[in-house]
Amino acid sequence: MEAAEHTNIGAADPPAVSGTERSGHMERWYSRASVRRSPRRVLADLDPEHGLPFTPELVPIVAHPEVVRRGPMMIHRILTRALGDHLRFTEELENEVVVPVAQRIQSGAIFPWLEPPARIDAGRICVDEAYHSLFSRDVLSQLERLTGVRCSITSATSLERLDARARRAPPQMRPLVSAFYTIASEVVVSGILRTTPIDRRVAPIVRQVIADHLRDEAAHQAYFSAIFPEAWSHLGAEERDFIGPSLAEFVTWFFEPKYAAMMGWLMAEGLEAGTVRKIMEDVMEHEGEQEPLRHRGAAPLLHVLRSGDAFAHAATADAFSRCESFARRRSVEIRHDRR
């Protein structure tokens, strides 16, 4: 009898309590979090007849005539590398940045003004993100074993730049740089992930893997969107002068095209250097076609910054106005906030 009772511990959501006791964004975590409800995703096969490994519009080189004329198998291998790059970057991001930040929020080392329920939610986010790292590594290992394609990391440059950016800050400010990078990434990641799970051209197992991630990130987006205004309000003048412009850099990193990665994928296919150069020049010439996707992805973060009056800070507004990807679309609104 006692053993049977213990098998149900934690199986259901705790009783609903008032908003003063819980932050409200993860009240159903015990029944909805992927780590508690989703099965292990197993790649049985990724043959072209079962679907694509990744959404092709996110990898513009596969639409280039030089790639298309070499046949669907090359396209399939390049998209496999793109999927591997996504999984590997997810693993690195969660392990190196998001999990440590969530742990510090839970402990009160960062944002100590948060109420205990919000800090408990940060602990739940820590568990989610550790699981995202785990299943990304698991699926990546399956992918490499199944396809024989070695998916080397090519998207870690934003983490390297984050580390360099943090080193430029005074030592006492460095944890805040990682914390606000995490806020920005968690607010925009839902938009980045949303495309593939609804793309019926993509293999069902891949869509399920990314949908597991997306389900959790919707709750994380709500959590970090809610705490940003107060987090910003607690910054001192020197901290705002450094963190605000850093946010503009972060959003640029999130949405800049992965040219170095795509060049590497083409070279891995054995294309001659001149052909690779021509493909990349053509893709870069049409970069503007990706702007609507970037604008849609960044919109939630820009809304959160506006709700927290971040654009009333001159250095922040100026930094976002200078962002090449967003200046034309957002400069009028940003200037308006400064008046």
What does this structure look like?
This protein is mainly alpha-helical and 339 residues long. The chain has a single domain, classed as Ribonucleotide Reductase, subunit A, CATH 1.10.620. It has 15 helices and no strands. The longest helix has 36 residues. The radius of gyration is 21 Å and the shape is globular.
What's the CATH C level? Answer: Mainly Alpha
CATH topology: Ribonucleotide Reductase, subunit A
Q: Report strand %.
A: under 5%
What is the arithmetic mean of pLDDT? 85
The number of helices is 15
Cα-based radius of gyration, to the nearest Å: 21 Å
Can you lay out the helices and strands and say which pair or pack?
Blueprint: H1 2-6, H2 29-32, H3 34-37, H4 65-68, H5 72-107, H6 116-147, H7 157-168, H8 174-193, H9 204-233, H10 237-255, H11 259-268, H12 273-285, H13 291-307, H14 314-322, H15 327-338
Keywords:
disordered C terminus; single chain; mainly alpha; disordered N terminus; Ribonucleotide Reductase, subunit A; 67% helix; globular; 339 residues
Summarize this, please?
This protein is mainly α and 339 residues long.
